[in-house]
Write a structure and sequence with these properties.
Length: 441
């Protein structure tokens, strides 16, 4: 299993390999090396086949991981080969590929220039979907008012417009179909949480078993889409419009939690079975079905036990930091204050208007040391770039005109850093004052 992260899906697949009577190997930073000596190639550790679970969509340098996967793919068979994964994580590349094979996808427009993108806004009506080409868990996806201009980029990521497909009078939902080796393992309807229109389970969406309910058109479309994209396992997301089913995305690293909650079935043993059989091994079909009834995402015994040094690879952020903040219609550089006492990042109303932050997703109540009971504030999605790393967060909007900095970085961003309170991009050497103490209820 090639996976440099600690996802529950990776753990579940490795545990399933072991439970099926075979030896799992977790290829991680601690134990992986490839050497060439006298034209002889050596892999450490040695393996028979690789199941690719690299998360390219939320990494700073996807090309590096893509190159790593390609290296393994050249010398060992691989499930979810890197070329197929790369095409799938780029949402517009997915749409273009599927459309070229006569699979229905929502109308969409990607343009490199601001003028061309906004010239095409009118074809999507007054409301449409605005997406970054690469994103995950619903981050980088907005429902926008298309009477206002949009930007061809959000931060350093390309963005595009897509038609909004909705059925009047119905709660917004889509259909995820999980496919392994050309077979449907299960399917679920995903319903948007209250106050949102995105159906991602990671955002709190509800799920309902759809395995036996979905019609032939939906199942055949999902199977065809996974095959066209060249993926051995994938979650295919579809939405039903007035003209039938449309493919929204094909996810090569789809999560297991929602599907298991909806269907009581885990894809992990089926992925393990595929890898074992592709490498020439055999498995007991009844045992696969038995294991699928449990989602065992406990830490696998094969995890390398090397303990990394304290704070390894944890970047440092200053008390005052220069950042790039992006909305749907623009980006700008701003100075931001780091506040470990704040649960959520906060942006000034004027700055939010300048970059086109929005639309408003919901309201949240936050506490301030000076306001008993707290205040209700709107929240919007932002993309904040810090030293080349992009963070998509849901930030509260408030009037910060009386404060020194228009942006406050909360723990939703700071959890990825160590804060050095002595480092200030404004050159002010004064010690920091007490935290603004925003605590989300």
């Amino acid at each position: 299993m090639l996976s440099l992260h600690n996802s529950k899906e990776t753990k579940a697949i490795l545990n399933a390999v072991e439970d099926l009577g075979h030896t799992p190997v977790w290829l991680r930073q601690e134990n992986t090396a490839i050497s060439v000596e006298d034209s002889e190639l050596t892999l450490e550790p040695d393996i028979d086949i690789v199941a690719n679970r690299l998360l390219l969509s939320n990494t700073e340098e996807p090309a590096e991981l893509l190159g790593l996967a390609t290296t393994f793919n050249r010398v060992r068979p691989m499930l979810n080969e890197p070329d197929a994964v790369m095409a799938s994580i780029h949402k517009f590349a997915t749409a273009a590929t599927l459309a070229n094979w006569n699979i229905k996808v929502p109308d969409a427009l990607l343009a490199l220039s601001n003028d061309r993108l906004n010239q095409g806004r009118s074809q999507f009506g007054d409301v449409g979907v605005y997406k970054t080409a690469i994103g995950t868990h619903g981050g980088g996806t907005w429902k926008v008012d298309l009477t206002e201009p949009v930007n061809p980029k959000v931060g350093n990521r390309q963005a595009f417009l897509q038609a909004l497909i909705d059925r009047d009078g119905e709660r917004h939902r889509d259909l995820r179909v999980y496919i392994v080796d050309g077979e449907i393992i299960g399917a679920m309807y995903r319903f948007a949480p209250e106050g949102d229109w995105r159906t991602n389970v990671a955002l709190g969406g509800d799920v309902l078993n759809a395995t036996d309910e979905m019609d032939d058109e939906a199942s055949e479309t999902a199977l065809y889409a996974a095959d066209v994209m060249g993926l051995d396992y994938a979650g295919v997301d579809l939405i039903e419009g007035n003209d039938g089913w449309f493919v929204l995305e094909v996810n090569p690293t789809a999560g297991f939690k929602g599907l298991y909650k909806a269907t009581g079935k885990s894809p992990a043993p089926y992925i393990a079975k595929s890898a074992i059989e592709r490498a020439g091994g055999t498995v007991d079909e009844d045992r696969v079905a038995e294991l699928a009834a449990t989602l065992d995402d406990s830490e696998p015994s094969c995890k390398p036990r090397v303990e990394p040094p304290e704070h390894q690879d944890v970047p440092i952020i200053g008390y005052i930091e220069d950042v790039v903040v992006s909305g749907t219609s623009g980006s700008t550089q701003a100075k931001a204050k780091s506040d470990t006492g704040a649960t959520r990042t906060s942006i000034d109303t004027s700055l939010a208007a300048e970059i086109g932050a929005g639309p408003i997703k919901s309201m949240t109540r936050v506490k301030s040391g000076s306001v008993k009971g707290g205040k209700a504030r709107p929240v919007v999605d932002l993309v904040i770039g810090i030293g080349g790393t992009q963070h998509t967060v849901t930030a509260s909007v408030e009037d910060r005109s009386h404060m020194d900095y228009p942006l406050l970085l909360g723990r939703d961003i700071l959890e990825h850093y160590r804060v050095d309170v002595r480092r200030r991009s404004d050159g002010d050497n004064k010690p920091p004052l007490d935290s603004e103490e925003y605590l989300e209820e």
